[in-house]
Amino acid sequence: MHRWDLNKDELDRIAADIWPAFNGAAWDVKVAEGKAPRKPPLTREGRNALAEIGAKIGLISWQLTQLTEPALKGLAFEVRRTAEYGDEPGLWRGLADECDRQREILARHRTGKGVWYAVIELLYAEDRNTSRSVDLAYERCEGKKAAIEATRRLLAENASKFDDRVSVQPSVYCELEWTPPSD
Fold this sequence. Notes:
extended; 3-stranded antiparallel beta sheet; alpha+beta; 3 strands
């Protein structure tokens, strides 16, 4: 969590912005200007294509998670060869990069090295088949063992939030699998 520690000068500027006659001071407030790129419309045709592509990417992603490190290494090699000589080279290069990422995730799980996250998620059961995340606690750690210990501590700290509709789900992820939410 980031906090903004205000000094007197900054508080006076804020007050002068809200109440121009504050303290008889007149501050020169500059308005920031810029242009955000205009978002092109997503047509019905585009939405349908996106949904279909998303489903196929989900299947590809699942298939990659089922492979071993050696299988991913061999697949990445063949996919790169296909990218050189086949159609859609950009898509094939992207697939090869994803093979490499999945292989690195497996290596991190095997070795326990690198940056890891201890994560506790509180899930509220809205009905028998639906739940939603209501709270998240996480900690950045060096190494898998440290993340496991931190997860145990976070689990103990959040155990009191468990009840008949709220489950507490502990997880340990390497930095390639999970990104902390932006505050």
